Amino acid sequence: MTASFKSSRAANEQEHRTADMRLIVMDIDSTLINEEVIDLLGEEAGVGEQVAAITERAMRGEIDFKQALEERVGLLAGLEQEVFDRTFERVTFTPGALELVQVAHARGWKVGVVSGGFHEVADRIVETAGIDYCLANRLEVQGGKLTGKLAAEIVTRERKLDALRSWAQELGLPLSQTVAMGDGANDIPMIQAAGTGIAFCAKPKTREAAPFTIDERNLMLAMDIILRD
């Protein structure tokens, strides 16, 4: 009888932990961090204003993201690969970002990032923050220099959504126990699919499409929404 009781209690505790489990998935640029990495790379290439203008239009959903990314990456051709070190040094985490990851992990939750940015910088951001999952683009480098091309399939809005679903499935979680946050138009599908979708300091189209919005640059405000939702 004692063994049966313990087994039942353990099963109930496991069920409770699973019910409380969450997966938080965030965009990187202008969400997890304050900057747009591609804009920083553009500045290094001497085309900062041109790249930033294209970024702004893409994030507002005014132009096709894939086309805009390829155009911006093309402007980076010839940069030495050491540019990644300098770019990472300029990155700053959004207020509350590291705290949000720490609090999530303390609860046993997982955190992932999906980005139209680049693994060459994103991987360092992920390591610093202690994030569990990462999906980003890769830049082609030959002879120590950027070619102006991408080295893998582009991370589109569809792939961001696929990552949310795939990571949730891996964890055995329904989408109702996921959280998605971002600022751009390419974040809308995952924001709408997640159990808790948050537009963070977002562009107008994203704000209109999201169930929840945060307009202050403090990612810990997301925890209030997650816990009450």
TrEMBL record:
CDD domains: HAD_PSP. Keywords: Amino-acid biosynthesis, Hydrolase, Magnesium, Metal-binding, Serine biosynthesis. InterPro entries: HAD-like_SerB (IPR050582), HAD-like_sf (IPR036412), HAD_sf (IPR023214), PSP (IPR004469). It catalyses: O-phospho-L-serine + H2O = L-serine + phosphate; O-phospho-D-serine + H2O = D-serine + phosphate. PANTHER family: PHOSPHOSERINE PHOSPHATASE. The active site is at 27 (nucleophile), 29 (proton donor). GO terms for molecular function: L-phosphoserine phosphatase activity; magnesium ion binding. Pathway: Amino-acid biosynthesis; L-serine biosynthesis; L-serine from 3-phospho-D-glycerate: step 3/3. It comes from Collinsella acetigenes. It is an enzyme of class 3 (hydrolase). GO terms for biological process: L-serine biosynthetic process. Its cofactor is Mg(2+). The gene is serB. Its EC number is 3.1.3.3. This is phosphoserine phosphatase.
